[in-house]
Specification:
Length: about 350
């Protein structure tokens, strides 16, 4: 499996920009990389300055010897595509897609982007064995941490007794066979949900048998992948007390799931030239005094945020503010921005570690 990097962070700290930057840095360094956005807000498209970023993925122009493909997760589209692959018969596929439970499931999956994102990432790795790196850009805030636990929860659902029983019953019903115990159980359940609804659900589960089996296998691989010592969990943090509090909350949430973050990225720090600036203000105009006060204030906050992250026992990587990202050659600027993060992840000292 390729190495996986998961970026977490509060809204507005530059997490998506860092995800795009890391993917481009991998490509510029000669790696075959993939970048998957699982944030429902779909910010990755604008970060890469692309007109469109479909679910199946597109190649991103790079100036290095490697390559980068990027995609935005669309859970409903993923499900329909997986069903199409599992049901090659046109009539069966049409009946399945018209099943009311399938329609409801496809609509509801939009709220489970983290779970489907894990499966989609494994699918990508399966279909492109030459991939060396996959970067996941998650949704903002604490809810994104559920990505670490979701494979276990979905595995428990798909492997549950009710799902297995309904699948078996739907198969027997199509053959005109049903055990006496099954009929009694069905009657009891039908009183709660209605026989038609239960039949529709059983037919859905049975028709999705192949797709569910594939999903379970991929969830199992995702579970092991997340626990792989090479997997990197990166927490992005901005220069503000609120951002520091959010980053520390993310750190605690990650550890609560039995993982240890690889590092924190302190994003948009002052460039070294400004941080070391010591102006002569005795004869300077008022604007220079105001600018000097701004620099001093920013540095105080920057040092305070860094100290808070270090107190969490997090390795901290500083990424300077990148004003060049708004120029014409944005992708080259992103690759340069992501290079320090790529290099830090390549260093043995920053390999992800599991706890618990």
């Amino acid at each position: 499996m390729p190495r996986l990097a998961i970026l977490l962070g509060a809204g507005g700290v530059g997490k998506t920009t860092l995800s795009a930057a890391l993917g481009l840095a991998h490509a510029r360094a000669g790696t075959r990389a993939a970048l998957l956005g699982v944030d429902p807000a779909r910010r990755l498209r604008s970060a890469l300055a692309l007109a469109d970023l479909p679910e199946h993925g597109v190649a991103v122009a790079t100036d290095g010897p490697g390559s980068l493909a990027a995609a935005l997760l669309d859970p409903s589209t993923c499900l329909r595509r997986w069903v199409g692959e599992a049901c090659p018969d046109t009539a069966e596929r049409a009946a399945l897609i018209a099943n009311p439970f399938f329609v409801a499931l496809a609509d509801r999956l939009a709220g489970f982007s983290d779970a489907i994102g894990c499966v989609r990432a494994v699918e990508w790795a399966e279909r492109d064995p030459a991939l060396s790196e996959i970067v996941l850009d998650t949704a903002p805030g604490i809810p994104a941490v559920e990505l670490l636990a979701r494979p276990d929860k979905l595995m428990a659902f798909f492997d549950g007794r009710l799902i297995r029983w309904l699948t078996r019953f739907a198969r027997l019903s199509r053959l005109g066979v049903a055990a006496h115990g099954s009929r009694r159980t069905l009657t009891a359940l039908a009183q709660l949900s209605g026989a038609g609804a239960l039949r529709d659900f059983g037919e859905l589960v049975s028709a999705l048998d192949a797709a569910i089996a594939t999903m379970i296998a991929r969830l199992e691989r995702a579970r092991g992948w997340l626990r792989d010592p090479r997997t990197a969990i990166i927490i992005a943090c901005g220069i503000s007390d609120d951002a520091a509090d959010a980053a520390c909350a993310l750190d605690r949430a990650v550890r609560a799931h039995g993982f240890e973050p690889t590092l924190a990225v302190l994003n948009r720090v002052l460039p070294t030239s400004l941080a070391a600036w010591s102006p002569r203000l005795d004869a300077a105009p008022p604007a220079a005094h105001a600018f000097a006060r701004y620099i001093e204030s920013h540095l105080r906050i920057q040092h305070r945020v860094r100290a808070q992250l270090v107190a969490q026992h997090l390795p901290v990587l500083d990424i300077p503010d990148a004003a060049t990202l708004d120029v014409a050659d944005r992708l080259a600027g992103l690759a340069a921005l992501g290079e320090p993060l790529r290099a830090a992840l390549a260093a043995p000292a920053t390999v992800a570690r599991q706890v618990g």
